[in-house]
C-alpha cells in the first residue's frame, strides 16, 4: 500500500540529560539522569503519523554508524516505509544534545551529520513516493535547497504541503510561501519569521496574518499551554490546549504536526485535525524523550 503521508526531514539520536536547571554559559552542572532515544524532527513527525493512524514514508539520511542502524530500525518497527532513508558513508548520523530542566524546558544542540547531506537529487530519486502521497511534510533540519525543491514539487503535484519551520534562524525565502498549504510554527518561530512579538494570542494572530500576507495558505501557531491559533483566509479560531502536567516538552510540536497530518489523511476536517494533534501532543508532554513520548491512536480514543 502506498503511503499517504511523505515526511522529508531529519533523523537524530537524542542524547538527553535531565538537570534541575539549564546550565549557564561556562558553567559545569551536575545532572540527574541520562538516556539515549531516537529523535529528529522529521523522524518524530513520521512516527507520530504512523502511531496515530496514517500510512507514512520517510525520506532522509543517516550516517554509517550504530546510531544510523538504530534510527532506521526505530522507524521500521512502526511500519514506516524506509526505502528512501539513505546511509551516508564516512559521516556520523545526526545527533541532538538535549538538556531538560525540572520545569520541563529544554535546550538542544544539533549536529546534522547525514541530515546535512540530503540533497534535492536524493529526494528526486523517490519521486514515486511524492506522487503517491496526499500530504507532504517538511521541517528545517535538512538543507534549505532540499526543502525548497520539495515544496515546489509538492505544489506541482497538487499535494497538501505542510511546513513546520523548525528550527528557524530567520525569515523564510519569499518564494516558498506560495507552495505552503499549512505553515505550522510555534510562538518563537512565528516571531522569528515575522518580527512580530508573539507573547499572547493577539501577537500570534498578528504574526499569522503577516504570514498569510506573505503568501502562506493557512497558518497554525502552536502556543504550548496556550493552545493553538488557526488563521486562514476565512478567519481565525483559537483551540485551547488540554491541561496536563508537563514532564518533557521535547517532540510535542512534532507530535502535533504528525497527528494533524494523520488526521487529514483519515478524512478529518481541519478543526478536528488540529484538536486531534493537540490531544496527542498533550499526552506526549507527560512522558520523557522524543519518540518514546509519542502516543498511539488507542491511547487517544475515549
Ligand atoms: O523536536 C524535537 C527534536 O528536535 C528532537 O528529537 C531532536 O532530535 C531535535 O531534532
Give short descriptive properties of this protein.
single chain, 302 residues, alpha/beta, UDP-N-acetylmuramoyl-L-alanine:D-glutamate ligase, nine-stranded mixed sheet, four-stranded mixed sheet, 13 strands, binds alpha-D-ribofuranose
Bound molecules: alpha-D-ribofuranose
How much is the radius of gyration in Å? 18 Å
CATH fold assignment: UDP-N-acetylmuramoyl-L-alanine:D-glutamate ligase
The coarse overall form would be globular
Task: Please report the first level of CATH classification, the CATH class.
Answer: Alpha Beta
SSE run: EEEHEHEEEHHEHEEHHEEEHHH
Tally the beta strands. Answer: 13
Q: What percentage of amino acids are in beta strands?
A: 15-25%
The averaged pLDDT comes out at: 97
Which architecture per CATH?
Answer: 3-Layer(aba) Sandwich
Distance between the termini: 28 Å
Arrangement of strands in the largest sheet:
5-4-1-8-9-10-11-12-13
Q: Could you name the ranges where pLDDT drops below 50 across 5 or more consecutive residues?
A: none
Structural class: alpha/beta
Helix content: 25-40%
CATH superfamily, called what?
Answer: Ribokinase
The domain count comes to 1
Largest sheet: 9 strands, mixed
List the total number of helices: 10
Characterise this structure.
The protein is an alpha/beta fold. It has a single domain (about 5-10, about 40-90, about 115-300), classed as 3-Layer(aba) Sandwich (UDP-N-acetylmuramoyl-L-alanine:D-glutamate ligase). About 35% of the residues lie in helices and about 25% in strands. It has 10 helices and 13 strands. It has helices at about 40-50, 65-75, 120-125, 125-130, 145-155, 185-195, 200-215, 250-265, 270-285, 295-300; strands spanning about 5-10, 10-20, 35-40, 55-65, 80-90, 95-100, 105-110, 135-140, 160-165, 180-185, 220, 230, 235-240. A 9-stranded mixed beta sheet has the order 5-4-1-8-9-10-11-12-13, with helices on both faces. Strands 3-2-6-7 form a 4-stranded mixed beta sheet. A hairpin with a 5-residue loop joins strand 6 (about 95-100) and strand 7 (about 105-110). It is globular, with a radius of gyration of 18 Å. The structure holds alpha-D-ribofuranose. Alpha-D-ribofuranose binds near residues 44, 96, 108, 251 and 254.
Amino acid at each position: 500500500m502506498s503511503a499517504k503521508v511523505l515526511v522529508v526531514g531529519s533523523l537524530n539520536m537524542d542524547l538527553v540529560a535531565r538537570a534541575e536547571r539549564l546550565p549557564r554559559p561556562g558553567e559545569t552542572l551536575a545532572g540527574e539522569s541520562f538516556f539515549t532515544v531516537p529523535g529528529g524532527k522529521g523522524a518524530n513527525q513520521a512516527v507520530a503519523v504512523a502511531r496515530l493512524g496514517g500510512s507514512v514514508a520517510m525520506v532522509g539520511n543517516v550516517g554509517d554508524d550504530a546510531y544510523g542502524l538504530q534510527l532506521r530500525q526505530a522507524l521500521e518497527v512502526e511500519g514506516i516505509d524506509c526505502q528512501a532513508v539513505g546511509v551516508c558513508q564516512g559521516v556520523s548520523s545526526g545527533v541532538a544534545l538535549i538538556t531538560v530542566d525540572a520545569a520541563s524546558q529544554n535546550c538542544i544542540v544539533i549536529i546534522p551529520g547525514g541530515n546535512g547531506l540530503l540533497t534535492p537529487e536524493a529526494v528526486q530519486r523517490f519521486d514515486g513516493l511524492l506522487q503517491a502521497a496526499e500530504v507532504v511534510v517538511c521541517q528545517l533540519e535538512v538543507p534549505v535547497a532540499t526543502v525548497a525543491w520539495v515544496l515546489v514539487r509538492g505544489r506541482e503535484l497538487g499535494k497538501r504541503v505542510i511546513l513546520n519551520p523548525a528550527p528557524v534562524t530567520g525569515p523564510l525565502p519569499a518564494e516558498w510561501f506560495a507552495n505552503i498549504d499549512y505553515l505550522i510554527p510555534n510562538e518563537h518561530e512565528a516571531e522569528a519569521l515575522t518580527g512580530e512579538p508573539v507573547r499572547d494570542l493577539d501577537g500570534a494572530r498578528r504574526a499569522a496574518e503577516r504570514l498569510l500576507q506573505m503568501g502562506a495558505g493557512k497558518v497554525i501557531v502552536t502556543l504550548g499551554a496556550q493552545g493553538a491559533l488557526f488563521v486562514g483566509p476565512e478567519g481565525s479560531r483559537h483551540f485551547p490546549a488540554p491541561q496536563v502536567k508537563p514532564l518533557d516538552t521535547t517532540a510535542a510540536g512534532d507530535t502535533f504536526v504528525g497527528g494533524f497530518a494523520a488526521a487529514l489523511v483519515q478524512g478529518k476536517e481541519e478543526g478536528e485535525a488540529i484538536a486531534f494533534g493537540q490531544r496527542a501532543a498533550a499526552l506526549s508532554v507527560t512522558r520523557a524523550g522524543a519518540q518514546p513520548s509519542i502516543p498511539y491512536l488507542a491511547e487517544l480514543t475515549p
